[in-house]
Structures are given as C-alpha cells and as structure tokens.
Write a structure and sequence with these properties.
This protein is α/β, with parallel strands linked by helices. The chain is built from nine helices and six strands, in the order ααααββββαβαβααα. Strands 1, 2, 3, 4, 5 and 6 form a six-stranded mixed β-sheet that branches. Helix 2 (about 55-70) packs across helix 3 (about 85-95), helix 2 crosses helix 9 (about 260-280) and helix 5 (about 175-190) packs parallel to helix 6. It is globular, with a radius of gyration of 20 Å.
C-alpha cells in the first residue's frame, strides 16, 4: 500500500496508512501518535536528499517491536511485514545515528513529567544482570560469571529512582561489577549532568566511591544488607533496579543474548524500554 502523497511519512495519519493490529507487540494508534514525531526525518526530506522510503514507518516500528517482544530471528519475521533486510537495515541505521537513544530519552522525559517529576533525574541506581549467550555471540565478547554460573554477557544498568533506564552497558559476564561501573557512570555523567547521587549494592564498595567523587562529582552510596539477614528482604533503592531488570527480561529478545556485538544487545534493551514507556503513556487512551 503506498504512502500518502499529501503528507510526510512521519506525519501521515490518514486511514489508508494505518496498519491493522495483528500482534500484541503492534503499536496502537495512540502509541504511534506519540512515537511518530520522535523518529528521525526520512532521507528524502533532509537537505542531503535520498530515496523515498518504500514502507511506512509504523510497519517498521511494529516489526522491530515484534522481534524484541517475541525473540525470533530477523529472518523469521512474518510475511505481512516488509522484507527482513529492510527492517534490519533501518533498525541498525537508527541505532548507529543515535535515533534509538533519542527516542528512548524523549519518552522517558514524558513519563517523568506525567508522573509529576522533572524531565531530567538527579539520582540513579545501578546494578547488573548476567544473561546466557546464544552460540551467535562470539567468544571475544562473552565470559563466565562464576558467581551466577552463567556463560554469556552481563548488562550493567543505571536507572532513575522510578526504574526508568538512564544508561546500559553490555560486557562479557566475566567483567566485575565495580570495573564496569566506571565506564557506566562516566557515560551517565556525560549524558546526565544533573545526576549527583547513585545507589549501589555492596559489590560496588571500594575504590569506585572515591573515584566517582573525585572525577565525576558523584556520590555513590552503598546499600548494605542488615547484619544477620538470611531471608529475602526488600532493600531501599535496590529494589527499583531489580524491578527494571525484570521488565527487560520479560522481552524474549533480552531474556537471552543473541547479538554478535554488545552494542546490538544494548539497542535491544532500549527498544524494550521504548515499548514499555509508550504503553505506559497511552495506557488510558
């Protein structure tokens, strides 16, 4: 079906350009109205010029969300979507140009404002999660987490105090949490200058705290377990990031690592959170 000629691809809202929802991962009309203005301008509308896009943006986004939600390989996209090479090509271009992170950050700001918070956070919570790797993950970017008995990768997260993602870093599972926390916090400081405090568990205790205070002007506060605790107990601040890890794991593409490059796994995590936040913002529409 051709794209409406009267309107740009990103702004088209006529009924002939709406794709009927076939899968649970498909965008609703309210979600698409929220996402469409945040996508990058098509090449044919940019100054540099380019060929018009042959497929509607909404179908592309639905296809990406289908893969993230269901965990299938790109080649196994249903036939009612455009060719998988087209979808995968746009997915990679958006990731490489920073469009995925820009979309994610805009939705996060909207969620925070809807909750009565400021658009940018001032505090964060960090933690990590080891994920088993599929055979497609090369040896050079995977490792063995002896504590969790996991052969794969480890994703390190920084979230705000409501659990929304701020930064994600994928490393081999053999990398210690305190070692990966430095680049994670550096990236967080570079992108979120207002963040001045971070909470973490006892694994991060040691040289990380003075390093963050000296070079990032960031206070890292360790949340320790109560003495003599032998049963499960919800700890202040730490439960927030644990809940975020559960949200991400509910998307099958993120439940196990299938990506050849760590950056591709990070992109999958961002798309999982994009879907979650878009649904949250349009929950009552």
């Amino acid at each position: 079906m051709p794209v409406c000629p009267a309107l740009p691809v990103r702004a088209c809202a006529r009924s002939c350009c709406r794709r009927p929802r076939r899968y649970p991962s498909d965008t609703t009309d309210a979600e698409w109205a929220l996402i469409a203005p945040l996508l990058p301008v098509p090449a044919c509308q940019a100054r540099s010029g380019g060929r018009p896009e042959q497929h509607r943006r909404r179908v592309v986004v639905d296809a990406i969300r289908y893969v993230i939600h269901n965990g299938c390989v790109w080649r196994a996209l249903p036939t009612d979507f455009p060719p998988w090479r087209t979808i995968y090509g746009l997915y990679q271009r958006w990731n490489a140009r920073g469009a995925t992170i820009a979309l994610h950050d805009a939705l996060r700001a909207a969620v925070r404002l809807a909750a009565g918070r400021t658009a940018e956070p001032t505090a964060a919570v960090i933690d990590s999660q080891s994920v088993r790797a599929a055979p497609t993950v090369p040896r050079s970017s995977r490792g063995w987490d002896n504590a969790k008995k996991v052969n794969g990768r480890k994703r390190h997260l920084a979230v705000d105090t409501s659990g929304l993602l701020l930064e994600v870093l994928a490393t081999p599972a053999s990398v210690q949490d305190r070692d990966a926390a430095r680049p994670l916090l550096f990236n967080l400081h570079r992108a979120r200058r207002r963040v001045r405090r971070a909470w973490a568990d006892a694994v991060y205790a040691g040289t990380l705290q003075p390093w963050a205070a000296t070079y990032l002007n960031l206070t890292v506060e360790i949340v320790k377990r109560p003495p003599g605790q032998h049963t499960f107990e919800v700890l202040p601040r730490r439960w927030v990031v644990e809940r975020t890890l559960a949200w991400i794991t509910s998307y099958r593409r993120c439940a196990r690592d299938y990506e050849r490059l760590p950056a591709h796994h990070e992109a999958a995590v961002y798309w999982a959170m994009i879907t979650l936040m878009a649904r949250r913002l349009t929950r009552h529409n």
